[in-house]
Design brief:
238 residues, 12 helices, alpha+beta, globular, single chain
């Protein structure tokens, strides 16, 4: 029986898992990929929470054994909430960015999640997850007033890129590579990058400074790889 990878085409950490599958060369049919639509909040459905109470992607099911996270040091850093690349998708730094994102995918993402959470929190069939839904509703709701939070988050992203990663990132970091690459690619996408050709430039323009040599060398070595192209070549940066 093949392993089942639950992911979503626009999920940053789903992309990390997909990078691993492509880079490590699993044979055809060894990993079945199933889509959980995050925009529609399918990760909050009881049928998925039965597998992963965190409601997060990626989730890997291998013969009934479900894997939900990893614990490597660099992976822990890149996954810390203060450096959340998903919030980078939503953050705004000026009225122009606010107007643009209010009319695009970021608003759909927040609105879709809110609609699903509102439905499920009132559904008796999902009552065992009521506390989970209430916490998520509170967190999702704060995005209605996130301009100030955006400023602080942007500075935390800057600190990770320009201060923390240069100290911790090596040429090769094992499993952590997939997570760091996915994170940098998401930041490139939220900075206006659309392809391999402008990923680095987009980050540098957004943060107003060249990438540190260690970070730039690491990222530019990954971008030409077949695994990176498999995940991002057709779908675009996400």
């Amino acid at each position: 029986m093949p392993a089942t990878l639950y992911t979503f085409s626009a999920s940053i950490w789903g992309a990390a898992a997909e990078l691993a599958v492509a880079q490590l060369g699993y044979p055809a049919g060894a990993v079945e990929v199933k889509t959980i639509n995050l925009v529609e909040g399918q990760n909050f459905e009881p049928s998925f929470l039965d597998k992963n109470i965190n409601g997060t992607l990626p989730t890997l099911d291998v013969d009934g054994e479900v894997y939900k996270n990893t614990t490597d040091v660099l992976i822990r850093v890149i996954h810390e909430e203060q450096y959340d690349p998903n919030f980078a998708l939503l953050l705004v730094r000026n009225p122009e960015e606010l107007a643009a994102k209010a009319a695009a995918i970021p608003k759909l993402f927040v609105a879709g999640r809110q609609a699903t959470l509102n439905r499920l929190v009132a559904d008796p069939a999902a009552a065992k997850y009521a506390d989970f839904y209430k916490a998520k509703l509170e967190g999702n709701g704060f995005l209605l007033n996130f301009f100030e939070v955006s400023q602080a988050h942007f500075e935390k992203l800057r600190a990770l890129i320009y201060e923390i990663l240069p100290k911790q990132l090596q040429a090769e970091n094992g499993e952590a590579d997939f997570h760091v690459v996915a994170w940098l690619t998401r930041i490139a996408a939220t900075s206006g990058g659309t392809s391999a050709g402008d990923a680095v430039e987009a980050i540098e323009k957004s943060f107003g400074a060249p990438l540190p040599p260690t970070v730039k060398s690491f990222f530019t070595k990954w971008i030409p790889r077949d695994s990176w192209k498999t995940v991002y070549g057709t779908a675009g940066l996400h």
